[in-house]
Amino acid sequence: MSTFKKILIIEDEEALSEMYKMKFEQEGYQVLVAPDGEEGLALAKEKKPDLILLDLVLPKMDGYKVLKELRTDEQIKNIKIYILSNLGQNGEIKKGFEDGADGYMLKANLTPSQLVKNVEKIFGGQVVGVKRRGLEPAAKLEAGEDARQEVRNKEEKSKNGENLPARADVSVLLIEDEEAIIQMYKLRLAKAGYGVEIAKNGAWGIKRAKEKKFDVIIMDMMMPAMNGYKAIVELKSDEKTKGVPIIVLSNSAQDKDMERAKECGAASYLLKSRITPARLVKEIEKALNKTLNSKH
């Protein structure tokens, strides 16, 4: 069924849209991407997709306005539209439904694979995401105020030229085996001016870390050849690598897993489903600043 379904993703975070596009295309969907509200509206009218995944905080025209425009156009008003956003307050969700959304999904609560599964359910006639009634318990937005503030500030930062961090000479080793995750973060980190090297298993990541000087190591926990815990312990026991901050990216929200990673020597522990590429850049800067301050 997916081979014949066309999805339009209206999302201004390039790394996210590219990751979603890759995931959906791997499952046989046709995918269109628009980086702002105006282009998204034009593409919807021209291509008439089967489903639109709509962000709310967008350049040129916000998601609510796009939604209203879509619902007043006779030719496309019946297209299925799901909001995909990190804005999760009840009022924001309620407004989305009132303006005509068929559903509302929270980015922070979904991995790319989970999003694909949700879309399969949508095409199968099911309703997914936040429910119209009982919005607060259904939403459970755990990304916190930081995520809401981040998406609200995106346009302002873009206008002010604040997309890049202060450093442009940072070397990052990304140890990760899932291709979609690799491409998403590689794209965003490169855009931020970082040099990025990829290792697709723990053993190879250890080897490269010892051969080359990196400023930061970003590491998954579940990997082929060597799991993340063993990799962290080995890196922290080696003179060449013990001072390099390690940022863990994981799918596990278990307290015991977070504590174990930090006990092994991780500088921070982030959940893949709740971290945006832009937020990861901030975490890298935070780790670098902490390392720099500890040397003084």
Describe the structure.
The chain has 296 residues and is of the alpha/beta class. The protein folds into two domains: 2-141, Response regulator (Rossmann fold); 171-294, Response regulator (Rossmann fold, 3-Layer(aba) Sandwich), CATH 3.40.50. Helices cover 46% and strands 16% of the residues. The protein contains twelve helices and ten strands. It has helices at residues 14-26, 37-47, 63-72, 90-98, 112-123, 135-139, 144-159, 179-191, 202-211, 228-236, 255-264, 277-294, and strands spanning 6-10, 30-34, 51-54, 80-85, 103-106, 171-175, 195-199, 216-220, 246-250, 268-271. It has a five-stranded parallel β-sheet, sandwiched between helices. Helix 1 (14-26) packs antiparallel against helix 8 (179-191), helix 2 runs parallel beside helix 3 and helix 8 (179-191) packs across helix 12. Mean pLDDT is 82; it is low at 136-152 and 154-166.
What is the strand and helix layout of this fold?
Layout: E1 6-10, H1 14-26, E2 30-34, H2 37-47, E3 51-54, H3 63-72, E4 80-85, H4 90-98, E5 103-106, H5 112-123, H6 135-139, H7 144-159, E6 171-175, H8 179-191, E7 195-199, H9 202-211, E8 216-220, H10 228-236, E9 246-250, H11 255-264, E10 268-271, H12 277-294
Parallel strand pairs: 1-2, 1-3, 3-4, 4-5, 6-7, 6-8, 8-9, 9-10
Helix pairs in contact: 1-5, 1-8, 2-3, 8-12, 9-10
Would you state the CATH class of the largest domain? Answer: Alpha Beta
User: Count of DSSP E strands?
Assistant: 10
CATH structural architecture of the largest domain = 3-Layer(aba) Sandwich
- Name the CATH superfamily classification of the largest domain: Response regulator
Order of SSEs, N→C?
A: EHEHEHEHEHHHEHEHEHEHEH
How do the strands line up in the largest sheet? 2-1-3-4-5
Uncertain regions: pLDDT < 50 for 5+ in a row? 136-152, 154-166
Total number of helices: 12
Q: Determine the fraction of residues in helical runs and give it as a percent range.
A: 40-55%
- Average pLDDT number: 82
- Count of folded domains: 2
What spatial form do the alpha-carbon principal axes imply?
elongated
**How far apart lie the N and C ends?**
60 Å
The biggest beta sheet, please? 5 strands, parallel
Computed over alpha carbons, the radius of gyration is: 20 Å
The CATH topology name of the largest domain reads Rossmann fold
Structural class: alpha/beta
Beta-strand content bin? 15-25%
